[in-house]
Amino acid sequence: MGFFEEKGIKVAAVFGNHDDAETELTKEEQLAVYESYSCYVGKKGFCIKDRVGTYNLPVLKSDGSSYGFNLWLTDSGTYNTENEYGGYACVYKEQIEWYRETAAELKEANGGKVVPSINFQHIIVPEIYDALEQIDFVKLGCVIRKKNPLNDKTRYYVLPEGAKGQLREYTCPPYYNNGQFDAMLEVGDVLATVTAQCAVRYNGSIRFNQNDFCIIPIKADVRLLTA
Q1: What is the DSSP letter of 25?
Q2: Given pLDDT bands bounded at 50, 70 and 90, which one contains residue 227?
Q3: Strands of 117-120's sheet, edge to edge?
């Protein structure tokens, strides 16, 4: 943060499972550290249960007449405590409802026009596997998704036809779905979701339901997955 402060670069942050599992500080304590820097523009935002810092940052057009863009920052939680499936957490239904209501307010304030947006969160939505092509056998370049509460057997996935690049590791979405991706499609504002769960390394692009999934690996080799 000191680097950004020195250079006068504005910074916003969003919490994910590593901010719970790999630190002794609470999210509120971590947020206080961020807020001690004048360059930090993030917010505590909408909070519920273990989630802190679900908020949005509207961007005005250069003439200040209306909103030109918007950033959603969504605390995707840590581990699943909503049901018996285990695994990683989903964005809560209450967070999704907050997103719907806030998006509607932005649209109204923008003269009835949807404000184009990008959503940032750590844990990716389950639909990421809908963007990949399932195959029946192991082959070079495929990723393996082991048997879990959503899959009755181990499954194999590759990039869909026409995509360029190479999948190197599997993604780790939740084993259940609270409807976040469907809500984004219904509202129609989110152009891309930037996530990091887990370390999928891929250079190229795939498109899925007119929405881009941009996966930033938590390992050193940072690349881009668009789906």
Answers
A1: S
A2: very low
A3: 46-48, 51-60, 67-73, 117-120, 190-195, 212-215
> What is the share, in percent, of the chain residues with pLDDT greater than 90?
55
Residues making up the chain, counted from first to last: 227
- Cα–Cα distance, 175 to 160 (Å, whole number): 22
- The rounded distance, in Å, linking the Cα atoms of 15 and 77 is 8
- The region that residue 105 occupies, defined by phi over 0 for left and psi between -120 and 50 for alpha, beta otherwise, is alpha
The answer to whether 37 and 4 are in contact (CB under 8 A) is yes
168 in Cβ contact with 201 (< 8 Å): yes
Confidence class for position 164, pLDDT limits 50, 70, 90: low
Residue 154 clears pLDDT 80, i.e. is over it: yes
d(CA 123, CA 54): 14
190 φ, ψ (degrees, to nearest 5): -85, 115
Distance separating alpha carbons of residues 138 and 135, to the nearest angstrom: 8
Report the alpha-carbon distance of residue 227 to residue 207 in Å, rounded. 4
d(CA 183, CA 96): 7
Paired tokens of 219: 């390992």
Residue pair 167/204 in contact by the 8 Å Cβ criterion? no
